[in-house]
User: What shape does this take?
Amino acid sequence: MGVGDNIRELRKLSGLSQEAFAGRLGVTKETVCRWERGRCAVKPRILERMQSMFNVSYDALVSDEMGLAVATANASIEGEQRIAGSTDAERGGSAALSVYRIRQSAGAKRLIRSAEAELPPSVLAKHPDSFFVRMEGSAMSRSYPSGSLLLIDPSLRPWNGCTVLAIADNADIVIRRYSSGNNMIILSSYSYETSEPDLLLAKRRIRVLGVVVWLQASHDITA
Assistant: This one.
């Protein structure tokens, strides 16, 4: 994945069409299209403008291994979200879903597949694209004990007061309570044990990966 892929991902994360993105940068839509297809180079002054305007690093725009496209691909686990045991679920049995842990890697947090856990078919029917994330730490101890498995539904749009799995600034993956204003999002902790600072960021700096819809005890892990 190269510069074009990173620019395409930046535009999508910013919620902009090619035309709107081009307008922000003072270029034509055709130029943006050529960038994204890798058909022309991006001038250094334009890269500097992107860094300043969208609050991203130089590596996020130009790196093949640490750019926005790779970061988003690592955070977006669509291929792993599919139900491994869908046939069992259709027969009325439980299905085995992937369990992910949040781990620090190469200066950013990643979702790493670590195990599987069973999900009742009645829950699976309501959230067919869901996956598990292990809750670690005490940032959300009022709602979710450390070690519990949280079922994440990536198809739901978040609402104020729900709990989400989100990535901030393409680097920090967190589980927090969600609140949205006009142009800002607040991701806040909900803990008996610690008072971690709220994350208050512009909407374009937050990507919600899914909404927490169910809680399961950690001892149900099967592998």
Q: What stands out?
A: Residues 77-92 have pLDDT under 50 and may be disordered. The radius of gyration is 19 Å.
